[in-house]
Amino acid sequence: MVAASSQGIGRATAETFAAEGCRVAMCARNEQTLQAAADHIRKQYGVEVFTQAMDVANAEAVHGFVEAVVAKFGGVDICVTNAGGPPAKGFLAVTLEEWRKAVDLNFLSTVFFARAVIPHMQRKHWGRIITITSITTKQPVADLVLSNAVRAAVVGLVKSLANEFGKDGILVNNVGPGYTATDRLKELAKSRSAALGKTEKEISEGWTADVPLKRLGEPREVADTIVWLASERASYITGQTVLVDGGNYKGL
């Protein structure tokens, strides 16, 4: 199960699971882009794909999606939570309504998924919950105050769930992408360009200059990490945040 999987890192993750032979359940708000992504995966990998257009910030919709997947596939083994990032703004430019939306979309959506899938995983005594956040959980990024603040709460939730449900065979981890070539990054480049009077190309070149690998990440590189964490090869890893950032985070 991969949330917000019609494009970007979410879509790459759904494709990578399909390449491993997994049956895939996908959701996103836009029905058209969701179906296009699902059709491509079916054709390319020959696996079963279940889709449902929904808003991950809606608790009832998330619960209904999970129950529909269980009815279709007989259970949920792997749940990847994901959501579009909040708008790129500085602190004083953010409204209270935007704070509430960011909490709903980028934190509570993970709570909704976890509440819905954990009982099914407990019955099998096996499960993987993997959240997708950002390098901002380790290193705040300018103009992303909403992400910097709200995604840190997801890390606290991941640690708590890992501690509570490890006895049930459920592993819970977080993946934090760095600067990755997605539409989200284009939005941030545009915001920075307007604020600093530089071209978007100059903004992008500045980011890659700070990355030891001197390039942006690709969505598939984040997806490969997620699939590895979901596999038995990562069977003794839980409660962790794994950065896929080309070495951009400089802390110890």
Q: Tell me what portion of residues adopts beta-strand conformation.
A: 5-15%
Count of beta strands: 6
Tell me, rounded to a whole number, the average pLDDT: 96
Uncertain regions: pLDDT < 50 for 5+ in a row?
Answer: none
Description of the structure:
With 252 residues, the chain is α/β, with parallel strands linked by helices. It has helices at residues 8-19, 31-45, 59-73, 96-124, 145-165, 183-196, 200-210, 219-230; strands at 24-28, 49-53, 78-81, 127-132, 170-177, 241-244. The longest helix has 29 residues, at 96-124. The radius of gyration is 18 Å and the shape is globular.
Topology (elements, then pairings):
Elements: H1 8-19, E1 24-28, H2 31-45, E2 49-53, H3 59-73, E3 78-81, H4 96-124, E4 127-132, H5 145-165, E5 170-177, H6 183-196, H7 200-210, H8 219-230, E6 241-244
Parallel strand pairs: 1-2, 3-4, 4-5, 5-6
Helix pairs in contact: 1-2, 1-8, 3-4, 4-5, 6-7
Structural descriptors:
8 helices; 252 residues; two-stranded parallel ribbon; alpha/beta; 4-stranded parallel β-sheet; 6 strands
Could you give a quick summary of the protein structure above?
This protein is of the alpha/beta class and 252 residues long. The chain has helices spanning 8-19, 31-45, 59-73, 96-124, 145-165, 183-196, 200-210, 219-230; strands at 24-28, 49-53, 78-81, 127-132, 170-177, 241-244.
